[in-house]
Design a protein that fits this description.
The chain is α/β, with parallel strands linked by helices and 399 residues long. The protein has three domains: 1-26; 32-151 and 285-363, 3-Layer(aba) Sandwich (Rossmann fold), CATH 3.40.50.2300; 154-278 and 369-393, Response regulator (Rossmann fold, 3-Layer(aba) Sandwich), CATH 3.40.50. 45% of the residues lie in helices and 21% in strands. It is built from 14 helices and 14 strands. It has helices at 2-27, 47-64, 66-70, 86-98, 111-123, 137-140, 153-166, 180-195, 213-222, 233-245, 262-267, 290-300, 308-328, 336-345; strands spanning 32-40, 73-81, 102-107, 127-130, 146-148, 171-176, 199-205, 226-230, 251-254, 275-278, 347-350, 353-356, 365-372, 385-393. The chain has a seven-stranded mixed beta sheet, with helices on both faces. Helix 10 links the parallel strand 8 (226-230) and strand 9. Helix 4 (86-98) packs parallel to helix 5, helix 7 packs across helix 8 and helix 13 crosses helix 14 (336-345). It is elongated and about 70 Å long.
Length: 399
């Protein structure tokens, strides 16, 4: 009888031990998957920069996911192609908010895509950390889930105007692409240039992509010292090339939408020597980005495009916030609201500098550069010359 009781006890103990085995195994595996999404143009004429943004995020996840995975969660990248089109970005955003595993979005490239898409993210408190969006409305709507690591167009336009004044420019003809981004930065340049005494001989918008004669003919007749183009490199390159072919001798200047190796790939020697302002200098201007550039080239067999390092930093901030939110949730999957709140609290010493957000999601201080194109070889785009560097505090929210 005693032996029987012992056998029963032993059997019960063995059964309990066997039942515990799956729990032990499960404890060493991921509790759940956490996804970080990107939204940028992965196809079409802006795909060079959009792809670079995605790859910057991919590299950051691979290198920095360790702390989150140690807490028991698998981290995955989910890239979305917004094609640089607002309707596509909004449709992608609708799909994102239905996937409860997506806890952060890194994007967009185009402000005109980011603004309506972020209204969708707001519905689900899905946090957006933007590497590249510069339109003031990105943050001036004061949404708790929207942030950016870069500067703003109201400041960038002023930086461009100040630089034009330093070149002793007396007159300018301003052209823009009619997008939210391009028209806005062109307006900021125009208004600040006027204040500095630069005569604005024309302000025109165009959606043309190939034949710029209708807009360049009146520009040539005015004989400006400078042509300022507010828009993207894919449109700027043929515009500048045709301007030279037409005999226009004005200097060229534009914002960070021109910042891509594809500008020289399309326009060649036409744009050598021209200047552009940017909120994201090439990786060569950031000492801490040297290892990033090396790892990026080893993995992807090409140099980083502009905003690749900013995408890396944006992702690093998202991962830090997710880690903090998991800990605050007692090791459980955090809510999107918690991640969004944690992002605003992150102080990040990143590749592109120290990043800390103000109450509306702007970096408290941002870098602005004036660059000069040094070669017609697209492979040498990251060798462009830094002419000027400024660190400027974000403007306060207007009441």
């Amino acid at each position: 009888m005693r032996r029987h009781c012992m056998n029963v006890k032993l059997g019960i103990a063995l059964t309990i031990a066997l039942l515990l085995v799956p729990s032990v195994v499960l404890a060493g595996t991921a509790k759940a998957t956490i996804k970080i999404a990107t939204q940028s143009p992965l196809s079409g004429e802006m795909s060079a920069v959009g792809e670079g943004m995605k790859l910057g995020t991919q590299l950051a996840i691979e290198q920095l996911k360790g702390p989150v995975e140690k807490l028991g969660f698998k981290v995955e990248l989910v890239p979305f192609d917004d094609q640089g089109k607002p309707d596509v970005g909004v449709a992608n955003a609708r799909n994102m908010i239905t996937d409860k595993e997506i806890l952060a979005v890194i994007g967009h490239y185009n402000s005109g895509v980011a603004i309506p898409s972020s209204e969708v993210y707001k519905e689900a408190s899905l946090v957006e950390v933007s590497p590249a969006n510069t339109n003031p409305l990105i943050t001036d709507r004061n949404l708790p889930n929207v942030n950016r690591v870069c500067g703003r167009d109201d400041v960038q336009g002023a930086v461009g105007a100040e630089f034009a004044k330093s070149l002793k420019i007396k007159s300018a003809y301003v052209i823009h692409d009619k997008t939210t981004y391009g028209q806005s930065v062109a307006e900021f340049f125009r208004d600040n240039a006027k204040k500095l005494g630069i005569e604005i001989l024309g302000f025109e918008g165009t959606e043309e992509r190939s034949n710029f004669d209708p807009i360049l003919t009146p520009a040539k007749a005015k004989n400006p010292d400078l042509i300022y183009f507010g828009g993207i490199y894919s449109q700027a390159a043929p515009l500048f090339k045709q301007a030279r072919e037409k005999g226009i001798k004005a200097r060229f200047l534009g914002p960070d939408g021109l910042d891509s190796s594809d500008l020289t790939k399309i326009a060649g020697k036409t744009v050598v020597g021209m200047n552009y302002t940017t909120v994201a200098g090439p990786v060569t201007v950031y000492p801490k980005a040297k290892e990033f550039a090396k790892a990026y080239k080893e993995k992807f067999k090409k140099d980083p495009e502009p905003f690749g390092a900013q995408s890396y930093d944006s992702t690093a901030i998202a991962l830090k916030a997710i880690e903090a939110a998991i800990k605050d949730a007692g090791g459980k999957l955090p809510s999107r609201e918690a991640v969004a709140a944690a992002v605003r609290k992150v102080k990040h010493n990143g590749l592109t500098g120290n990043i800390e957000f103000d109450g509306k999601g702007d970096p408290k201080k941002a870098l602005y550069f004036v660059m000069q194109v040094v070669s017609e070889d697209p492979a040498k785009w990251n060798d462009n010359k830094e002419v000027k560097r400024l660190e400027i505090a974000a403007p306060p929210l207007k009441k």
